[in-house]
Amino acid sequence: MVSITIDGQTLDVESGSTVLQAAERLGIDIPTFCYLKRLPPLASCRMCLVEIEGLRRLQPSCATAVTDGMVVRTNTPLIDETRSSMLDMLLANHPLDCPICDKGGECELQDMVMAYGPRKSDFRDPKRVFHSRDIRLSPVIIMNVNRCIQCQRCVRMCEEVVGAVALGTVEKGMDTAVTGFEGSLASCDQCGNCVEVCPVGALMSFPYRYKARPWDLAETDTVCPHCGTGCQLTVGARKGEFMRVRSKQEHGVNRETLCVRGRFGLDFVESRDRIKRPMVRRDGALVPVSWDEAGDYLRRRLSAVENKAAGGLASARLPNEVLYQFQKLMRTVFRTNNIDCSSRWSAPFDTLGPLLASFYTRASLHDVIGNDCVLVVGGNVTEENPVTEYLLRDAARRRQTGLLMLSARPSRLDADARAVVRVPPGGEAASLAAVVAGLAAAAGQALPGDAFAGIGATIDRPAASTGREGPDRLVAALKDGRSVTVLVSVDLLRSPEARATLQQLNNLLQVLSLLGKGAVMQFLFDRANQMGAWDMGILPGALPGLRAVAEVAARRALERAWGTEIPSEPGVDLDAMLDLCLDGRMGALYVAGTDPLIAYPDRDFVKRALGAADLLIVQDTFLTDTAGLAEVVLPAAGYGEEAGTFTNNEGRTQKVRKFREPAFEARGNLEIFDFVAALRHHALQPSTQGEIFDEITQLVPAYQGLTQDGLGADGAFTKAAPTPPAGTFFAAPPTPEVDDRLMLVTGDCLFHNGYLSERSEILNTVADDPYVEMSAQDAGQLGLSDGDQVVVRSAQGELTTKLKVNRRFPRGLVFVPENYRALRLNSLMRRGEYPCPVEVQKANAAFEIAPSAGSSASPEDLGQGMARGSP
Amino acid sequence: MTMREKIEDAAARYPDQRSAIMPALLIAQKEHGHLPGPVLEEVADILGVERIWVYELATFYTLFHTEPVGMFHLQLCDNVSCMLCGSEALLTHLEMALGIKKGDTTPDRLFTLSTVECLGACEMAPVMQVGDDYHGDLDPGRIDAILERLRAEAGQAIGADLAAASPGE
Amino acid sequence: MFEPVLLKNVDVPDGHLLSTYEAGGGYQALAKVLREYTPDEVVDLVKQSNLRGRGGAGFPTGMKWGFVPKRADKPKYLCCNADEGEPGTFKDRIIMERDPHQLIEGLAVSAYAIGAETAYVYIRGEYATAIRRLEQAIAEAHEKGYLGRGVLGSDFNFAVHIHCGAGAYICGEETAMLESLEGKRAQPRLKPPFPAVAGLYASPTVINNVETLACVPHIVMRGPAWFRGIGPDKSPGPKLYCLSGQVRKPGLYELPMGIPLRELVENHAGGPLPGRRIKAVIPGGVSAPLIPEVGLEVAMDFDSLAAAGSMLGSAGVIVVDDSTCMVKVATRIIEFFHHESCGKCTPCREGLNWVVKVLRRIEAGEGAPGDLEQLEKLCKGIFGNTFCALGDGAAMGLRAALAHFRDEFVAHIEERRCPFH
Ligand SMILES: Cc1cc2nc3c(=O)[nH]c(=O)nc-3n(C[C@H](O)[C@H](O)[C@H](O)COP(=O)(O)O)c2cc1C
Ligand code: SF4
Ligand code: FES
Question: Which of A142, B86, B89, C367 has a CA that sits 20 to 30 A from residue C260's CA?
Answer without folding.
Answer: B86
